[in-house]
Write a structure and sequence with these properties.
Chain A: Belongs to the ubiquitin-conjugating enzyme family. The complex is a heterodimer. By secondary structure, chain A is an alpha+beta fold. Chain A is about 25% helix and about 15% strand. Chain B starts with about 40 loop residues before the first helix and ends with a helix. The chains are: A alpha+beta, B alpha+beta. Bound molecules: zinc ion (2 copies).
Chain lengths: ~160, ~200
Amino acid sequence: MAAPFPVSCARRIQKELTALHAEPVPGVTLKSGPDTLADKSTDINMIIKGAEGTIYNGEEFNLRFRMNERYPFESPEVVFQPPNIPLHPHIYSNGHICLSILGNDWSPALTISAVCLSIVSMLSSCKEKKRPPDDQFYIRTASMNPKATRWMYHDDNV
Amino acid sequence: MVLESVNLPSTSKDNSSTDPDRKKTDPPASGSDQPDKGDVENVFECNICLGSPNDPVISLCGHLFCWPCLHEWLEMKPVGTQTCPVCKAAIDREKVIPLFGRNSKGEDPRNKAVPPRPHAHRTEHTGPGPYHNPLFEGANFLPFGTLGGPGGGFHMTIGIGASPFHALGAMLGFTNFAGQVPPGLPSQIFLGIAMMMIFWLIFF
Ligand SMILES: [Zn+2]
Ligand SMILES: [Zn+2]
């Protein structure tokens, strides 16, 4: 992270974390946040539990949010962390997620909690465990940062 | 501050998610110095910084922002493609209404010099696509890949699922060492090349 966080950015992240404690997203647990707000470290780790009645029931996934100093004007980088990456037609085996609100449709009114809700609903509505058709091709060529990818969003509603 | 994990039963007592206006009674679990002052405070928060608005303005769609916050967002998008961060209604700087409270000087914040800020590092070409706000809906996928220039709204449906352009760019040598697609590359040309690549992949 090149530049330190502007105060407004750090304050907003703090507000979001406070709100996450007060009104958590069902099935989502905050595992760890930035150690201090002045810190340039901006990783926020969440645990997502596969909901009952879904094909991910009982599974646990680690999801990492990484904010840069342009947050919330720029979207966070959101990646599932190994070892357990959900088998899902919109989630690549390197943890990258094809989700429009993380790219073109990002808005600064969206929050960590809104993104978590989206991802939970994406998992819950999935009926078949499989990787995207171009998974092998993608993971060989993709950058570490999913935001370097020009995504085309899936046309199906899994 | 280290935030500890808090385990939250997902099924217990009808969680707050169904009633956003519910008075919050639980204090934040963290050692936050910001006590929760309840709904009134939340209603008048800026939709971008989530703080109490500085130089408040309201859009025609009724959404409240600090002028500096909204200005920064508008600056990131070409005129004509600017949308409300909350509801994606069209928005532009001439059509926002400054709010003047009792002690404000009545000076239009839009006439003030907004402190210079670094510009966006990424240029997005986003057509006026449908918007799904996950706050209000469960669904989150756009049915189309949205490419193309501002205002062009070039929509394309692709049948083989995700086709991250980065990968195509990498094959064609359009990426730099960091794997970034150069922002200046005209997306129409790029799209054309990508289509050729897709056909090539399918037929050979
Ligand atoms: Zn603001
Ligand atoms: Zn609006």
